[in-house]
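Private note to self, pasted from the team thread so I don't lose it. Backbone tokens:
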């Protein structure tokens, strides 16, 4: 089968609107799937940044009442993406982020804002949009989780459905009294429907009612079926294990290409790795680190949270100082961690450089200028930072969890003997093991030929979307074939 049509239903998409890796995946996968004869149209809320980016948009659907106000569905191109945008000012056109206001508090009408996203996804699935109708609706994370419920309870013949969970920790749970206002029938509030521990579970609905489930790495697919990693959904995921697939993410290797990256002071190729030294010196200057070419610069680009293990890093800062290293950190998140790293930088100027917030350009420069890239997550569905690090020659130092375990080859003695390592793994995720990993990293750093081999191996790793896209295309086609044969 060729020419498969897929509607991607997602709450953010790079480069139009981004808060995390979900946007990167949603933005890069359509182009990779096109090479697999899969046409992807992306449905996204009409945030101001999305509407501003649309070119030659036309109205393909409209309604007088989408959860409290009129809405138009616009279709147009934006930054190379085929976009369907929900122009509903009462829901999406406001100052703040996609999920929260300027004060950081979640928008109180989030259940309706994202029920609208899911509902429009189902509407397009049934009725099409100016003649375009998807074969498959691919919903992403809890914000799109009700898509499968709207498709299921409508009763009409429907497209196939796929649900991808990018992070099981965010589930979208809301009070049961909203059921009717969300347009869900009373019978949906049941264990085999949207009910989840007495609430309406947006993510749970998607996981229960979609034809297929994917997550973003094989190891994470196994972890979320355990009591430790399942976050209350492990029983459901074990029950549906036969339709659960772990497909590794990739990165956009045109955006993330050190040879052509205009955000770098000095672009470079894997055959001229010495040019990284100029990027390291520039990064040290930008973040106020001592201009020491011999210091091991450890980069961190992360949300500052317990999940990401940044509390452990804060406690492990003496180890970085003990090995003569420098820390370059970019991120934002929990206020206590932000203040902790700011204070650490104030106490150790020249050794710790901190930038609170997110800066896409600095993220690229940190990948190019850091010697190592640290990801000490307690759980990590896939992770994109370590994939960028491999691409840019920053040796990844990662916790052995989820996609980190699947994408980094530990430079243990056996791997080094055959020249196969690409980074450093540690487990379990404790302060002692993180500290040991930092000392091990410093030891490997002192072996200059060995370190160069790690960089060479990492930069030779295929971190593109080529293989993941082929896997998704095969999943779509197998699903459509199964439905045609009457098999769910």
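Design output:
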């Amino acid at each position: 089968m060729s020419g498969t049509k897929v509607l991607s239903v997602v709450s953010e998409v790079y480069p139009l609107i981004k808060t995390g890796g979900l946007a990167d995946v949603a933005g890069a996968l359509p182009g990779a799937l096109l090479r697999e004869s899969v046409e992807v149209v992306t449905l996204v809320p009409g945030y101001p940044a999305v509407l501003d980016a649309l070119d030659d948009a036309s109205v393909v659907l409209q309604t007088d009442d989408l959860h409290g106000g009129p809405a138009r569905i616009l279709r147009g191109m934006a930054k190379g993406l085929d976009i369907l945008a929900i122009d509903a000012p009462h829901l999406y056109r406001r100052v703040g982020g996609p999920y929260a206001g300027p004060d950081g508090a979640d928008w109180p009408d989030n259940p309706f804002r994202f029920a609208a996203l899911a509902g429009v996804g189902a509407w397009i699935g049934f009725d099409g949009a100016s003649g375009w109708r998807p074969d498959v609706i691919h919903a992403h994370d809890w914000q799109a989780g009700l898509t499968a419920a709207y498709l299921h309870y409508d009763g009409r013949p429907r497209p196939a459905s796929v649900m991808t969970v990018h992070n099981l920790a965010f589930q979208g749970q809301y009070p049961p009294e909203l059921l009717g206002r969300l347009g869900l029938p009373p019978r949906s509030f049941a264990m085999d429907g949207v009910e989840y521990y007495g609430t309406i579970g947006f993510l749970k609905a998607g996981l229960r009612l979609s034809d297929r489930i994917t997550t973003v790495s094989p190891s994470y697919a196994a972890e979320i079926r355990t009591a430790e990693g399942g976050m209350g959904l492990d029983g459901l995921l074990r029950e549906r294990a036969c339709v659960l697939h772990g497909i590794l993410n990739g990165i956009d290797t045109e955006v993330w290409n050190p040879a052509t990256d205009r955000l770098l002071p000095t672009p470079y190729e894997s055959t001229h790795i010495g040019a990284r030294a100029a990027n390291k010196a520039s990064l040290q200057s930008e973040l106020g680190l001592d201009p020491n070419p011999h210091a091991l610069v450890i980069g961190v680009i992360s949300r500052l949270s317990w999940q990401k293990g940044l509390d452990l890093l804060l406690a492990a800062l003496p180890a970085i100082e003990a090995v003569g290293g420098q820390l370059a950190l970019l991120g934002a998140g929990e206020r206590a961690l932000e203040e902790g790293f700011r204070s650490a930088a104030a106490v150790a100027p020249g050794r710790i450089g901190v930038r609170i917030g997110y800066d896409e350009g600095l993220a690229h420069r940190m990948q190019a200028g850091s010697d190592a890239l640290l990801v000490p997550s307690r759980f990590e569905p896939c992770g994109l930072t370590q994939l960028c690090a491999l691409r840019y020659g920053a040796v990844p130092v990662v916790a052995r969890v989820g996609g980190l375990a699947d994408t980094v080859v530990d430079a243990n003695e056996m791997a080094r003997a055959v020249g196969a390592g690409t980074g450093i793994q540690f487990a379990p995720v404790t302060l002692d093991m993180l500290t040991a990993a930092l000392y091990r990293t410093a030891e490997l750093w002192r072996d200059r030929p060995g370190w160069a081999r790690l960089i060479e191996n990492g930069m030779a790793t295929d971190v593109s979307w080529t293989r993941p896209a082929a896997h998704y295309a095969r999943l779509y086609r197998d699903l459509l074939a199964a439905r045609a044969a009457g098999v769910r």
